[in-house]
């Protein structure tokens, strides 16, 4: 029998679930308008980078106070976060692998997708750089140099957004990674960075998690992403979408849509932009724009004419 959503959240425990405290019950500004949702819990499945960087812990208090609710943020790799939502164990999903998001939408599990924010991926490794990739203008050439040198590369191997990007890069590079030099960990980004430090290895990381962990690891950025002038292929956009109540009727759709409206609002977007670690910005908001991209709401390449009748 499928595990029930609240049991699912409780069962993950131990640092995976960021159980964010709800309101204390005191009257707060605007709460009188949200009587219908007060006391409820929103379950958010999200990529590990939003948890490991501390972003959600920093900003969620405003939403919880505004609506008188609790947010249970379950940090998983993107693939696992989407799978939890497919199983009805989530109300809203925040992830960063557009191809997997599009599949989720096309299969009818998600609705009302919005572009949320972005940062980028970077290739990091030991300062002595045994594969000689520092400053490479091509991410795929850098990966081929690592493979040819036999230098250790740590892969998350967890179907996360970062792992999906890494596999796409290897495919474009024309290299099938494998052998003793290629190590899959099945871990989140923070732990993968720790393992790479211990082994003097290379890895692909999102910039936000690397910055947040930099004081605890002995790695350096060797190939930059587009934020610092590196190749555009290392861009890392994040999206958010509600779970389709037509598929899972017990999803908290009203609260999910309130959350999407809040986190894509100018105030929350400013809070995302203002979140820094050691003076460096970790995420860059993109939900508010003078020229909105309407493709954000549907799978890439989708049009009404191509939809099944």
Q: How many β-strand stretches?
A: 13
| Percentage beta strand | 15-25%
CATH topology of the largest domain: D-Maltodextrin-Binding Protein, domain 2
Low-confidence spans: pLDDT under 50, at least 5 residues? 13-32
Task: Please compute the radius of gyration using only Cα atoms.
Answer: 20 Å
General shape: globular
In DSSP terms (H or I, runs of 4 or more residues), the helix count works out at: 11
- The CATH homologous superfamily of the largest domain corresponds to Periplasmic binding protein-like II
Which range best describes the helical content: under 10%, 10-25%, 25-40%, 40-55%, 55-70% or over 70%?
25-40%
CATH architecture of the largest domain: 3-Layer(aba) Sandwich
Give the CA-CA distance, first to last residue.
Answer: 34 Å
Number of domains: 2
The mean pLDDT is 88
Largest sheet: 11 strands, mixed
Helix-strand pattern: HEEHHEHEHEHEHEHEHEEHHEEE
What is the CATH top level name of the largest domain? Answer: Alpha Beta
In terms of structural class, how would the helical and strand content be classed? alpha/beta
Question: Would you mind describing this structure in some detail?
Answer:
- There is one protein chain.
- This protein is α/β, with parallel strands linked by helices and 309 residues long.
- Helix content is 34%, strand content 22%.
- Strand 11 (276-277) and strand 12 form a beta hairpin.
- Helix 6 (139-149) packs across helix 7 (161-173).
- The longest helix is centred in the N-terminal third of the chain and has 13 residues, at 55-67.
- 43% of the residues are buried.
- Residues 13-32 have low confidence and may be disordered.
């Amino acid at each position: 029998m499928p595990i029930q959503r609240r049991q699912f959240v409780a069962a993950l425990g131990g640092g995976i679930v960021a159980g964010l405290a709800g309101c204390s019950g005191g009257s707060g500004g605007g709460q009188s308008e949200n009587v219908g949702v007060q006391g409820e819990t929103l379950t958010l499945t999200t990529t590990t980078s939003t948890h490991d960087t501390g972003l959600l812990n920093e900003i969620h208090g405003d939403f919880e106070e505004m609506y008188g609710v609790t947010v249970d943020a379950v940090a998983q790799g993107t693939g696992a976060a989407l799978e939890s939502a497919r199983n009805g164990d989530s109300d809203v999903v925040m992830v960063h692998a557009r191809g997997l998001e599009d599949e989720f939408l096309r299969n009818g599990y998600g609705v009302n997708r919005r572009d949320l924010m972005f940062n980028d991926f970077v290739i990091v490794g030991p300062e002595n750089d045994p594969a000689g990739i520092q400053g490479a203008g091509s991410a795929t050439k850098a990966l081929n140099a690592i493979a040819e040198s036999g230098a250790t590369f740590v892969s998350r191997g967890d179907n996360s957004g970062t792992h999906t990007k890494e596999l796409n890069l290897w495919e474009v590079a024309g290299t099938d990674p494998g052998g003793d030099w290629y190590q899959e960990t099945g871990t989140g980004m923070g732990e993968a960075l720790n393992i790479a430090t211990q082994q003097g290895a290379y890895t692909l990381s999102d910039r936000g998690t690397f910055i947040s962990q930099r004081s605890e690891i002995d790695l350096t950025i060797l190939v930059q992403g587009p934020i610092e002038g590196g190749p555009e292929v290392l861009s890392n956009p994040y999206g958010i979408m509600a779970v389709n109540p037509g598929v899972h009727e017990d999803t908290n759709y009203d609260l999910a849509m309130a959350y999407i409206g809040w986190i894509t609002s100018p105030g929350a977007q400013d809070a995302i932009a203002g979140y820094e670690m050691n003076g460096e910005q970790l995420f860059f908001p993109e939900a508010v724009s003078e020229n909105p991209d309407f493709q954000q709401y549907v799978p890439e390449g989708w049009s009404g004419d191509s939809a099944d009748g």
